[in-house]
Design goal:
Number of strands: 0
Order of helices and strands: HHHHHHHHHHHHHHHHH
CATH architecture: Up-down Bundle
Largest sheet: none
Helix content: over 70%
Radius of gyration: 21 Å
Distance between the termini: 36 Å
Length: about 400
């Protein structure tokens, strides 16, 4: 049990990072209106600004925090981030102006960038052949938080618009205390890498990481996967309402079922799938499933059929952890924080771009003068993106080292 405590802490940290976003979503419209007045549309504009700020901070600071953890260790970075995160939620709980919420989202985006450090810690404690499966556990933890967060936030909202923030502060603080006693350091002098400001930023990290064999291609694939996947949070609510006549409850239920499906696939099925077909084939299988799922969702007109597709669409989530495992084994032991930081930045860029791109596609193919009425157009676009990722991956598939091989260190 003692040996499992660090992994439990890492998974709890990822759950809290994921929960923290959804936990406060139900109260944000009312909270912003109470601070700024105005109608719901104006509150939505501020909500978009706050969400963009959060993602931009993750993009900017993911590689920085990852590189800091390569130099000073994972333990201090994770524990300090949880303490700061706890105080940040307190700040937003007592915020009396919109600008304090802006400051809170800036701080929150920086602390949430420690997902890169959590992933690097998981890489540190995993055998080469276990990395992809353990990254699947991180994906499952994210899926669980994705489901629990909005549900808990909605329940706590009954006690006031500030209640979810206080709850999030307590949870982050409690996890920090748990980590203080449960989390040993994994960065030893053997893999400790000097901090280099030229590599501790998104562009520098990408330049350094992509010098390794095939990692440039893998970075592109990872970005495409993220951009295509974010079609779900970007347009699902609008798509479900227009195409199936769903209300908020049914939309929430369908997203919850999808999150649970991903958690089951990545948490329970990932390891046996990898043992059966390996990482390389798991990437191809996952991406191929995504292509088919996106095509079916692009044309489906019955809501119950869309729900029935949930287990199939969730199966596509094996591609991300499998690719992440390959990338982690390709990078050196003393580059794990840098690599995960670069991936955090890529994910943040996709988070920023996807809502703008997918909602514009949805509007273009659903407004009155649309050239063709096609509410599922964003999903078909995601299918094209994912198919492109398959084409990029296949040429390098045979050159990927076996799961038992890994790199030691670089300068």
């Amino acid at each position: 049990m003692q040996s499992r405590l660090p992994m439990i802490f890492i998974l709890l940290t990822v759950v809290l990072d994921s929960m923290g976003i959804g936990l406060i979503m139900p109260v944000m419209p009312d909270l912003i209106q109470s601070l700024e007045g105005g109608d719901l549309g104006q509150a939505a504009l501020w909500g978009g600004v706050l969400a963009t700020i959060f993602a931009v901070m993750q993009f900017l600071f993911g590689p920085t925090i990852g590189s800091i953890s390569d130099r000073f260790g994972r333990r201090p970075v994770l524990l300090i981030a949880l303490v700061v995160m706890s105080f940040d939620y307190v700040l937003m709980a007592v915020a009396g102006t919109i600008w304090l919420l802006v400051i809170g989202r800036i701080i929150g985006g920086i602390t949430a960038a420690t997902q890169s450090t959590a992933s690097a810690y998981m890489a540190d404690i995993s055998k080469p052949e276990d990395k992809a499966a353990n990254f699947g556990l991180i994906g499952a933890a994210f899926g669980i938080g994705f489901v629990i967060g909005p549900m808990l936030g909605g329940i706590l909202a009954e006690y006031g618009t500030r209640a979810p923030f206080w709850a999030a502060a307590v949870l982050a603080g409690a996890n920090g205390i748990f980590g203080y006693f449960a989390l040993p350091e994994t960065v030893t002098d053997r893999i400790r890498r000097p901090f280099d400001i030229k590599r501790a930023n998104p562009l520098g990290a990408f330049k350094s990481i992509t010098q390794l064999p095939d990692l440039g291609r893998f970075m592109i694939i990872s970005f495409v996967i993220s951009l295509a996947f974010f079609v779900y949070p970007s347009v699902w609510a609008y798509f479900g309402k227009l195409q199936f006549g769903w209300g908020p409850g049914m939309i929430g239920l369908s997203l919850g079922a999808f999150g649970i499906g991903i958690a089951i696939v990545q948490g329970l099925l990932m390891r046996p799938i990898l043992n059966k077909i390996g990482e390389r084939n798991a990437v191809v299988l996952g991406l191929s499933v995504d292509v088919l799922a996106f095509i079916m969702l692009g044309f489906v007109t019955n809501g119950w059929i869309a729900l029935a597709l949930t287990p199939f669409t969730a199966l596509g989530s094996i591609a991300g952890p499998a690719l992440q495992g390959i990338m982690s084994r390709t990078a050196a032991d003393n580059q794990q924080g840098e690599l995960q930081g670069a991936l955090t930045s890529i994910n943040a860029v996709a988070t920023i771009m996807a809502p703008l791109l997918m909602t514009q596609l949805f509007f273009y193919f659903t407004h009155e003068s649309a050239p063709a009425y096609l509410p599922g157009a964003p999903f078909l676009f995601s299918a094209v993106l994912t198919f492109g990722a398959v084409l990029i991956f296949i040429p390098v598939r045979k050159s990927i080292p076996p799961r038992t091989e890994t790199t030691n260190e670089v300068g």
